[in-house]
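Posting here for the record, re: nicotinamide-adenine-dinucleotide.
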Amino acid sequence: MSKLRYGFVGAGAIMRTHAERLVQRDDVELAAIADPAEGPVQASADKFKIPGRYAQFADMIAQENLDVVVVAVPNAYHAPAAIAALEAGCHVLCEKPPALNAAQAQQMADAAAANGKRLLYGLNMRFQGESDVARSYLDNGRLGEVYHASVMLFRRRGIPGLGSWFTTKAISGGGALIDIGVHILDLTHYLMGQPQPVAISALTHARFGNNPETYNYLSMWGTRVPGGPFDVDDLAAAFVRFANGASLVLQVSWAANTSEGGNIRLMGDKGGLELSPGSSVKLFTEDNGAIADISPLYPKPDAYAAEHAHLIDCIRDPAKALRTDGAQGVVLQKMLDAIYRSSAEGREVPV
Ligand SMILES: NC(=O)c1ccc[n+]([C@@H]2O[C@H](COP(=O)([O-])OP(=O)(O)OC[C@H]3O[C@@H](n4cnc5c(N)ncnc54)[C@H](O)[C@@H]3O)[C@@H](O)[C@H]2O)c1
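Prediction output follows.
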């Protein structure tokens, strides 16, 4: 079987996360990388021995005869890069969020369908061991009908790249919600069986990022740009109604005066689940006539490596269904759009 030729659009932090997993596989070849910033291109290409080095992704895609393109650029550039790659006949792993908005995500899904290529989103939480266990409980009927989910993902002081593209709405599409809320909202929706969202009421806040001179922090992914913009949310709260009658309450922060952590609670009419991403999962059930908890032991694979293995399996076997495909990306992005719209308009909005 021939090796799959990989190209990367973007040579930043998450590109390196992906490359670290891919270099461990013997069925892929890291062929090229494109980024207008020369320093990151040379550093990442040297580190992973990637021969093709480009400033423009269009040149890389035109010249490198790639099988797979990993889109690892700021959110505003996901759609143009992914669509160019799909139209050139490449499969795509595109980082989260799918795009800036649902219209772009729809164009990406359409490009994948029109060209018969795979489009997987980098929603790596779906590939964590807890997620596999939880989804199998759902699929095996242990939860019955899931009618409510309560989900939170709080960082106490963890705004990424304050002042950089991460906190510039025109490039990121938003703040805490679209950056990390996207992961936990997507995972919860997947674990509920992907009901159709119909209406959302939400409110977003900005209380820390817009005071950069007094902002103390515990962690910062990316690089701070002093004096740069902050016109996004650092906390979001939302209530989602689904067509099947289910409800979901979401709370997410980059920065808030509360303890850190992520937690998903699913409530079904036969059983319930509590999941801490990357940490634990517990089933709330009844057993032998008694109310009982089950705390399973399970494998904990590296989620990024599992994500790549899944995409490669799906490329090799066209009959296999992708776990996070273009159509699912559109639904997810519609929920994100509706959360921001509801907050801006101060009312519940249709999804
Ligand atoms: N799945 C995850 O856990 C996870 C974690 C972090 C980031 N991400 C996502 O990955 C993406 C990139 O984030 P990052 O942390 O690597 O950012 P980063 O700022 O470290 O790197 C982005 C790189 O993209 C380059 N770039 C900008 N425009 C480009 C273009 N048109 N063509 C090619 N390169 C271009 C920049 O020069 C930079 O080197 C974002 O969408 C982010 O949401 C996902």
